[in-house]
């Protein structure tokens, strides 16, 4: 077995890239948030100038993604392997893919821009947790992980998670737009300034049916990728753990997530379950994904242990 | 899955009419069975067959499938909260020790065998009954649809989600239908003309894919069940130099499926020649991290005279006839010889020590029931690279054997092995035994390096550490179903992709008094619907290309 050279200096440098991207994402978040509140203004000139802010915010996101990409690449070179063998690496690579898909989707559907605040805010949060809680120095791979299935299985899992993530942002927006307390406010709440601003912001978002449909399209891509993750994981498990399926805690949660999204697809074709209920299923499904990646990884006993974290 | 109709008798696309579009049933592309399900119970007299039919419709309805899926997801959760006998048997034992009152009650509810429990099984069996009951009738409906021409052009096209009206003169009108027929046919549509209009439909593969997906899931379930019945999984710890012979007695533990037959064990033997570990030696913060485990084995099959040398690694099992041999663990096995007080050899051989930390500090137990004048047991630690802590205690500082040391504490007394109750070879019940070395006894623990020997206290005899070997934990597994599981899983994936991405769509071109109309209707989600109408109108009228779209409702309103 060949010795692997770990470049710790480069690894430290790559963390700087991640910190730089966090600053830029935070800046993009602020700009996009200001854009949202301004675009909701009654004043026509103010709401018009807000469009510029959206463009600026998007370009800051692009810059952040570049710094983020350097951070991920630096980590990969420092470790001489794919950058997703522990939770820190999975977080930085996963969020990179989320932002990448978000920006690429804008090319096809410009309207998706409006979830920019969700995406940048979420990414800052995850990167903050990754650098503060999950961080570990570059390590060599444990023999069980040292296999080409790491490339296939985890890449697809990251992609699936990214698609589910964007779909969840869309469904949450949908739930805000259709929420009864928002559409039919009761009492004094309707008179408050913040409520009126919120309503105007929500008015600027795409209409409900469009949100629902776009979320559905992201979810079906996510579901196909998740199915593949599950199959690839089983193939790998047969080689590494001598059985293709053994109800390991991570396998259990992969199955639970798959089943929830399968339920979501059925809900979309069941009268009384489409609309709000299926949007709630998206929220439940994505919560299960977050739970799987945080609580299950850290506190549940299982075979999916990551070096240190 | 999501986009198809789980409708038993009526498939909306087959009966779609403008009226149906207006009522929203077919236009929404949503199944009708739930309507049946909610209406049926209010019927006054049902009778036995009526009730049976009603029950069957309930079971096979989309709503039931949805609820069962969500129930299945919820039911799977406890299996990740509590240790399971199949995945973590030691965890179950520990749980029983720590929760002596609640554990037996939980066990009654099969919370330690969730995935083979009656309640979990009930959910998925019901789910599959629902699936079969839903899919089988759909196969017939779909087979019929495949043989039938597209449904006739509706009278009012303006109600369709994508619609365009084009002004045209008599000359253009005379050729438009022929051109539309040709264009749509070229795009893979099935087309019929009735002289006044052209009706076209495409995307039959969507439903085909959906059916394939569901049928393949049944295939997965059957393969898992049948494969599991004939499968077996056996474990064996093999010390360097030792040989494993493939029969039931050769295993340390063995888990057969319910239909397992001992004749399934093919004759072969495996000798562990060498076990090697490669450690990281170059990176300062990572030194001592294992990079590779490598077990070199000689495998001798029936009829062979020459054993073949093979290498087993993690992720790289070795195939033998009828099964595969996997590497699942490793450790140290110091070879120990014990002579009793009368000078007879009471124990001799390699002792498997269980690793306790990443530097391979290992714990071993030796029981010497045949020693004279007194039985005794030994609790022993092994340090591959022993270092002394500030407290004076030993610790392993590196996992490779650079300075191997064995320490031993002697416990004298009745080991209880003669009572016939099976006991764990890896643990020593020290209660009731008399500790002679280490701890509070004031007598130093015995410390040995390879080749050294020492006298035991109280004239119990002597012990020697003869040499150091390594061992490998091997898993010998056989599952005849797994190839089928993979096949059906990939088939399901293929069907899933087909059913989610192939658009099922109808397109109509119809002559009107001032020109012609183009309309399209999708079954299921179809982001291209408006573009299809736009492109078709352009293709039919290349000169002007000024199709006036009177209706471009944002997109297809339905999402099945």
Biggest pleated sheet of chain A: none
Order of helices and strands of chain A: HHHHHHHHHH
Q: What count of helical segments of chain A does DSSP give?
A: 10
Instruction: Give the overall average pLDDT of chain A.
Output: 90
Please summarize the sheet with the most strands of chain B. 7 strands, antiparallel
Radius of gyration of chain A: 21 Å
Low-confidence stretches of chain A: none
Number of helices of chain B: 13
Largest interface: A-B, 68 and 78 residues
Total DSSP E strands of chain B: 25
Rg of chain B (CA only): 37 Å
- Measured by DSSP, the beta-strand proportion of chain A falls in under 5%
- The total domain count of chain A is 2
Poorly predicted regions of chain B = 1-40, 545-560
Give the overall shape of chain B.
elongated
Task: Give an account of the 3D structure.
The complex is a heterodimer of chains A (309) and B (560). Chain A has 309 residues and is an all-alpha fold. Helix content of chain A is 75%, strand content 0%. Chain A has helices spanning 8-39, 44-79, 87-108, 116-134, 148-178, 180-183, 193-204, 208-240, 249-267, 276-299. The longest helix of chain A has 36 residues, at 44-79. Helix content of chain B is 31%, strand content 30%. Chain B has 13 helices and 25 strands. In chain B, the strands form five sheets. In chain B, strands 4, 6, 10, 11, 12, 21 and 22 form a seven-stranded antiparallel sheet that branches. In chain B, strand 16 (386-388) and strand 17 form a beta hairpin. The chains are: A mainly alpha (309), B alpha+beta (560). At the A-B interface, helix 8 and helix 9 of A face helix 5, helix 6, strand 8, strand 11 and helix 12 of B.
